[in-house]
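Subject: for your reference before the review

Hello V.,

The reviewers asked for a structural picture of the protein, and I figured it would be easier to keep everything in one thread rather than splitting it across files. Below is the amino acid sequence we used in the manuscript, unchanged from the supplementary table.
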Amino acid sequence: MKLSEMDGIKLDENLINKILYDIPKDDGLNGDCIWVFGSKNFWEERINYAVKLYQEKRAPYLLLSGGLGKTGTVPESHLMKEKAISLGVPEEAILIEDQSNNTTENVLCALLVFERKFLLQNIKRLIVVTSLGHIQRLSLTLSRYMPRWIEYSYCYDENSPVSKENWTKSEDTREKATKEAYGIIYYAKNGYIEDKEIEV
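And here is what came back from the structure prediction:
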């Protein structure tokens, strides 16, 4: 069944797992830039993981993407930059996109940053860093808006509180995962992301 056809279906744990966690693993390849997506709740987890990848020389630059969101007073990308520098990343290796307020805007606003820094046609692979529970929506957003020739290595902290093993352990993470799954269905139905077949 396509994601777009699931509108109105009550989701159980099994279906939420299929919607959120049928995702690519990190393939270990290097890329042109490590692209880190901001988050009100998970930005610190993401930047810590991204810095680890930078120190492993997976890519020579970090692009930190995130504006104020709905309730912020400091852009998420600025918070991540401060953290990255404190962890030893040189400022000249950091690119900033601070105008976006959601995943679609993260992608659209980052396109201009990539174009100005690298020229889009020169980008072959991006190392994408986000939280486990966000990978599905992000990958389908990238499929919708990014140039088709660019490939991705999807990187995330497997011990995240929103991992497949952890999301049912607290009311807070259960609520976040359930909301994300319903959100993905909504976005697919309304054309914001690529639609995807889910085995039901």
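For the response letter, the relevant points are probably these. Residues 170 and 180 are 15 Å apart (CA to CA). The domain at 25-157 is CATH 3.40.50.620 (Rossmann fold).

Happy to draft the paragraph if you're swamped.

O.
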